[in-house]
Please model this.
Amino acid sequence: MTEAQSENVGNWVDIPIPLPEPGTTAPFIAGGRELLLCNADGTPYVVRDQCPHAGAQMQGGALRGTVLECPMHGGSFDVRDGAPVARPIRRAGWCHPVRAHGDGWQVDLG
Ligand code: FES
Model:
């Protein structure tokens, strides 16, 4: 597989919103999925807008560095890989790869 071919592997779609301010998140929908665009000190990450603990929406939760806190019970996970950081979250959060594309960003919906 060539490098150009490998860049097109996946299900990349445009993120329809601009990157929010550093340390904040913004919800959007792509491919029928509710997602959250996170600006972790200038680096974009996309996670599913659903807590791996009890399914609450993650939007409105504090983002400190790469750690996103759930507004429902205060659990948290790392937006880089979904790794749980604080209980009651014990399972990994759902994360999607992000890449720059033109003037904006794309997310891989897998
Ligand atoms: S629903 Fe998110 S920590 Fe409980």
